[in-house]
Structure formats: structure tokens, C-alpha cells
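Amino acids appear as letters; backbone shape is given numerically. Here is one record.
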Amino acid sequence: MAAFAALLALVACGKGGPEADKKEADKDKDEGPGITLTDEQSEGLGLATAKLVPASYRGAITGYGMVMTFDTIAQSDADTASAEAAAAQSQAAAARARELSTGADAAVSRETYETAAAKAATDQAAVLLARRKADAAFGPNAPWRTASQRTAILQRLQSGRSVLVKVTFPIGATVAPQRFTISRMGTNGKGWGTSTVWNAPADSNIPGRSLFALVDGSDLAQGERVIATIPTGAPQTGVLIPRSALVMGESDSWAYLKSGENTYVRSRIDTSRPEGDGYFVSQGFTPGQDVVTTGAGQLYAREINPSTEPAD
């Protein structure tokens, strides 16, 4: 019985050994050996730390676009409205000419009526052309198919209560007309939700899926570049690593966590999720830890070359 128990113990050790070795190897891969300094050395390197704060992150499909200028929309509307007005007038004239050209005491000749009818047909063709041009520019599903709809939307655009943006999402992205968020390019400020979205004609200069959207209540300027985002997946929790804490080395990105009085441990950072002025990280860091935000580069140089001394 004792021999059997010993055999079980040996088997258990054999199974746990490789797993333990793998965990240890993974830890070594994600952490540097660490470095311990004296108070004078820490002061000489000018080290400063900040506590990590909790953060959340949600994946998103990102597209880029521009706020359309009002004159482009107004010109399209003017062309369509002018064509419709001319067509209405010529149709009325053709109808009158028809009445006057019939009967024994006709007031106008049949030729006059035919000329008016031909003019009405030509003007109606101009309406169709103007509408097709509008469809080519803004898509067949633009929310201004009638004169009253165009007037209402143009008033909103002219007053600045709304802006029209055109955005393009990358090839392969699963994007359907829906609500998404518009924000300024190059900033991390406020975003605005879209109120109306529809398909835009494909742009041969920018491959991808293009959409138009009306944005209400923004202070975006005409011609301004914008970013569009559609959230994907579930939110994740983690911390935000300040950009100033980042150190590049060994073909990876690192940050130093302070452990104890003057011990600093180098930990790997996944920089695939930039967020604001830093990087969102979901593993390896916890809120409340002290991360080096000033002097991280000097600390790394001293770790890989212990003979390096702080400059006088």
C-alpha cells in the first residue's frame, strides 16, 4: 500500500511539473527581473510614479469621414427644385394648350399644343436627371425625397442645428445603416450620436463601406474631418497605462511597477488598445498599483546595464 501511494505521488509530481514550468515561463516572458535601488539612486534617476486607475474598454469598428459643405447640398436642392418648378409650369401650359386646341372654335393650333407638350416632356426629363444626379451624390435613400422634406432638412443644416457627414468604414467590416458615434479627429473630446443614417454611393478613391448621417446638436464645422465608431463586443475592465510610462525594449513595450520601497518590476504592455493619453490593459496590472511615469527610460537603461550611473 505504501508503495502504491508513493507511485501516485510520483505521477502527481510528473503532471504538475510541466504545468508549473509553463506558468513560470509565461511569467518570465511578461516580466523583467526587476531592479532595486537606494533612495539616492531613485532620486538621481528622477523617478516619479502614479497610481493606476480603473478603466473600461469596448471594441469598435472605426471609420473616417468629413462634414459635407452646405453649398454642395444646397446646389443639388436648387437644381432639383428648379427642374421641378419648370416641369410643373410646362405641364400646366401643355394642359391649357390642349384644351384650347380642341373643338370647332379652337383658340390655338394643334402644332402649338404639340410644342407645349414636347416642352413639358423635356422639362420632366430634366427633373428625372436632377433627381438622378442627387441620387448619385447622396444615394437613393436620402431622407429628402419631397420638397417639404428637403426644405425642413436644409433649414436645419443652414441654421447649424444639424450637419451632414459622410464616413467610410474599412473593407470587410460588417456595417449596416445604424446609429454610430461621430467625434473630431485627433482629439478625445465629446462625441455625437447620429440621428439618421443611410447608404452613400461607393467612393472609388476610398475603398470600403460608405454611409451618410445627420448629426444634431454638434459644433462640427463644414469640411471638418471626423471619426466614426460603432461599438462591438462586450465592455472589458482593466486599467489605463499612461503613455509617459511606456518603455520600448526587446521588441516589446513595458512599464515599471513599483514594489516595496525602491524595487521596480518591468511588466509587458499590450499597446493594441490606445485610449486617450495612454493604453488600456486588461491583464497584468490592477488599479492602485504604482507605475513609473517619469524616468522609466533611465530605469530601463540601468536594469539592462547595471553599471550605468545617474548623471550628476
